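Researcher: Let's continue the batch. This sequence belongs to Argininosuccinate lyase, and it's 469 residues. Same format as the previous ones, please.
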Amino acid sequence: MTTSQDDFTKRKLWGGRFTGATDPLMHQYNQSLAYDKRMYAADVKGSIAFSKALQKAGIVSSNEQAEIERGLRVVEEEWKNGKFDIKADDEDIHTANERRLSEIIGKDIGGKLHTGRSRNDQVATDMRIWLMDEAETIKQYLKDLIAVMANRAEKEVDILMPGYTHVQRAQPVRWSHLLLSYAHGFLTDLDRLNGIIPRISVLPLGGAALAGNPYGLDREFLRAELGFQTIGENSMHIVPDRDFVMEFLQWASLLMVHMSKMAEDLIIYSTAEFGFVQLSDAYSTGSSIMPQKKNPDSLELLRGKSGRVFGQMAGFMMTMKGTPSTYNKDFQEDKEPLFDCVDTVSASIRIAEGVIATMSVNKEKMREALTADMLATDLADYLVRKGVPFRETHHISGRAVALAEKNNIQLSDITYEQFKELSDKFEPDVVESVFNFENSVEKRNALGGPSRSGIERQIQVLKKGIETE
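Model: Same format as before. Here are the structure tokens for Argininosuccinate lyase:
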């Protein structure tokens, strides 16, 4: 028997009020199953909990609830095993699951599941369940990345390198200090993610379309059953609320900014001109025309994908800014940017972990890049310890730098007699006291500095942060 377009429309959850056929193009434009099917497990979980709430309220019997739960488990297994048969009128994951449930257990029981529930609160609940699970996975990926950085910093604490500002050589630091600067940024990202999870973990279910339900469904039971931290107190607010999506996209954008900055540093340091680091073959590619090339594609993709994530965030915020109160179909545009963002961030963190874990460091190249002029501040500090005001020592040190440049020599090649002409506070120990890179770094032992004790403390802070978080 041929199914008419009118029958096609009537089978939809909202089809009873409509007598005309749905334009097939409109159906395709409207459907979201192609991408929201990844929430199948969250939808089943929410529906099972809702069936138990219906039983508590006396809407379904214990036998009916058990049958609904059995049918939903079958639906979940079909999705998991790739055996779910998608029908033409399956508009979204919620429609598809309810349709299949009724096929398994019959419409008389299956049709009761949607009592007191709207797709509005159902989809909002599913998304929050799904994102809470994904956030936990992302947290673990971040912890793994931070751990790799901390462990590497611990092993390579002896390696010195130039620190840069404005991409100009500035002062000597430990390679570990640079590596840990990225790790502490990611630890802050981990803390921020923990901060938004309570705002994701707010239960919409029971809010129905916008005005709640008349069946006295126990929302506190639903909260506990689904593992939410709190309940949405106002149905008109919580059902259409997508702040949690925008906030996660904002969080992800900031994370990717940090990822991109790290990638840019390592791209620069991997060039032949620097030669400080070399990526492993697993995270590099070659040129199609120049066989000598080893391209840092993994890092370039990390840098590039930051723009992709930011674009998803900006795009969805523009979608939301002009919508009136309660649910609007515009909100269907929340899923693709969120899903894409979660996928991109998850993959990016894991790629970054692999890059950091496998790249090699050329400590000789780093050491060779250290030059005496980078100790100009140490020269000023030397005079400060002799009682000269820093503003004056800075000027004297600058004159010493100019003298070295004029004579085409290193700052450390200036003789004691020449230093004495610049200031009578210089003593014969000036060269020995100032021009030692290891000593320079070790003197910077204030909290947060690059000395050995500073590195050890930073590592402990990181390890504690990922263990006790």
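Researcher: Any comment?
Model: Residues 1-5 have pLDDT under 50 and may be disordered.
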